[in-house]
Amino acid sequence: MRVLYVASEGAPYSASGGLGDVIGALPKTVARIDSTVQCDVILPLYGSMKVEHRVALKHVTDLTFKLSWRTTGASIYKIENDGVTYYFVENHYYFDRAKTYGEWDDGERFAFFSTAVIEFMLKTGNIPDIFHANDWQTAPAVIYLKTKYASEAALSKIKTLFTIHNIEFQGKYDPAILGDVFALDECYRSIVDHSGCINLLKGAITVSDYVSTVSPNYACELQHDFFAFGLAGVISSVSYKMTGIINGIDYTEFSPKKNDIFKTFDKRTIKSGKEANKLALQREVGLEESASTPLIVMITRLTDQKGLDLVLHILEELLAEDVQFVLLGTGNEEYEDKFEELSGKHENFKALIKFDRALSKRMYASADIFLMPSKSEPCGLAQMIACSYGTVPVVRAVGGLYDSIKPYGEENYNGFTFNNYNAHELLFTLKRAIALYRDTETWAQIRKNAINSDFSWDKSAAKYIELYNVLKNW
Ligand code: ADP
Q1: Pairing between β-strand 193-194 and β-strand 197-199 as defined by DSSP bridges
Q2: Burial tier of 58 (Cβ tally within 10 Å: 0-12, 13-18, 19+)
């Protein structure tokens, strides 16, 4: 079986978030655990690609094609790595930009990419059994396969899987540009039309053979208006062809045995290891050095989705306790300013307003409690990463957080959860965790359960392979 993963980003070549991590991990895991599956990935070749990767590129072919009235083209390159062939679509005009996303012509850029992917398949005869597209940027590719390329005999056996990594981002455009930018005839308008806009995500959800999301609970939640950003009806109408598969994390990257934290440790040395890391982090960020004070951390984008209004509501009440709190994040300016202001006012709170992966690892390793009170969370990786360092998650039971963190007291518990989007429910849950932190034996068990949680990609990749096999014979 051949699977082609189509995405706008993929680690280590380009990654700005969860999607990049998934595309970096899933194909190579599928290829490793099932040698009968040939995995290819196709990505845009961004101008920002690092030289170390750029020198490994091998030219494959050149394409010339039409996108609406424009005659355009691309060069295709490849890199073979970890049993996977990564193809790259090069077009300097579209992809040598300052930003990966957020350019004025994103719709055109990804309509171009989607068309180039299909033209690449036609020119090279590299035809997959499963075409696995991801998020709104590659939604046009699924739509094109089912519309204007539907009569291509070479493509007719392809089955499409479309994965929604975050439904908030839908690729919504002015209805006037259907032909001009998206190169679609009027007869296809109803596929992408939604609430008076072109909605690419809606189009791909509608026409794709199967749809998945990044956790089982999120797949259910998306049938409700609160979570679906206007697409609850569309999601409900495709529930017969929809599933949720939780993401994994890369344990070679996030491991307390790896020498990128203050002091390495493992399950046996977790107590002394975490203590040494905590003292070093306290020193680094300017907190009082105290091994016995519970250290809470958050590492997050500073957006409404992450429950930061709840945190702000109870922060001063929390800081009145004997605790320390370090927040690492960037995002909305109002949140950045507010957290910085509070950081200046409280000795036991530090807000670090930056994006710093190296520091994030030192924080995961040092903390006692990882806070993640999200309003919605398609999957969430941070809570899993926290567990891998024996840091106990306190999360809202929503989306993938519900699927991955079981509350203390229940079978297989590995953290603390609260249900309602309520600041004091969050505070009381945190206070309960802090109280149990002082009960050394109980805490040692909670921490042990956290570090023993298995969020490996192998389990998730096996579920994808099962789905690909069903789909192939669909
Ligand atoms: P999302 O994809 O919604 O941002 P996830 O929990 O799935 O949330 O993934 C977030 C990832 O980004 C985690 O690996 C987290 O450690 C990392 N991250 C978020 N903010 C920062 C930051 N300011 N510095 C370093 N890493 C960060």
Answers
A1: antiparallel
A2: exposed
414 and 393 Cβ atoms separated by less than 8 Å? yes
Which sign, positive or negative, has the C-alpha torsion 210, 211, 216, 220? negative
To the nearest whole number, what is the mean pLDDT of the chain? 97
pLDDT one-digit tens code per residue, 236-293 = 999 999 999 999 998 988 999 999 999 999 999 999 999 999 999 999 999 999 999 9
Closest CA to 298 of 323, 271, 267: 323
Q: Are 373 and 311 in contact (CB under 8 A)?
A: yes
Instruction: For a ligand 1 pocket test, name from 218, 301, 335, 403 the mutation site with the most ligand atoms within 8 angstroms of its C-beta.
Output: 301
Check if 327 has its Cβ closer than 6 Å to any atom of ligand 1. Answer: no
**Residues whose CB is less than 8 angstroms from the CB of residue 409 and which lie 6 or more positions away in sequence, other chains included:** none
Which residue, by CA, sits nearest to atom 15 of ligand 1? 382
Q: Is the CB of 328 under 6 A from ligand 1?
A: yes
Write down the pLDDT at residue 474.
86
Domains of the chain and any CATH numbers: 2-248+458-472 (3.40.50.2000), 270-454 (3.40.50.2000)
- What is the C-alpha to C-alpha distance for residues 142 and 218, in angstroms, rounded to an integer? 22
Nearest alpha-carbon partner for 8 in 143, 82, 158, 116: 116
Residues 6+ apart with CB under 8 A from 230: 170, 194, 195
Is residue 378 lining ligand 1, measured as CB closer than 6 Å?
no
Q: Please report the beta strands in 293-380, taking only residues with DSSP state E, as ranges in sequence order.
A: 295-302, 324-331, 349-352, 369-372
User: Measuring from atom 20 of ligand 1, which residue has the nearest CA?
Assistant: 300
Ligand 1 and 169: CB distance under 6 A: no
What is the per-residue pLDDT across 316-351, written as a single tens digit (0 to 9) for each? Answer: 999 999 999 999 999 999 999 999 999 999 999 999
What is residue 53's predicted lDDT score, i.e. its pLDDT?
98
Tokens of residue 338, six digits: 């507010």
Residue nearest to atom 16 of ligand 1 (CA): 382
455 pLDDT band (50/70/90 cuts)?
Answer: very high
pLDDT tens column, 150-161: 999 999 999 999
Q: Is the pLDDT of residue 207 over 90?
A: yes
- Give the C-alpha separation, 86 to 294, whole Å: 44
Contact indicator for 472, 129 with CB cutoff of 8 Å: yes
CA pair distance 375, 371, nearest whole angstrom: 13
- With a 6 Å cutoff on the Cβ, whether 355 touches ligand 1 is yes
Which residue is closest in CA terms to ligand 1's atom 2?
18
Say if CB 202 and CB 238 are below 8 A apart. Answer: no
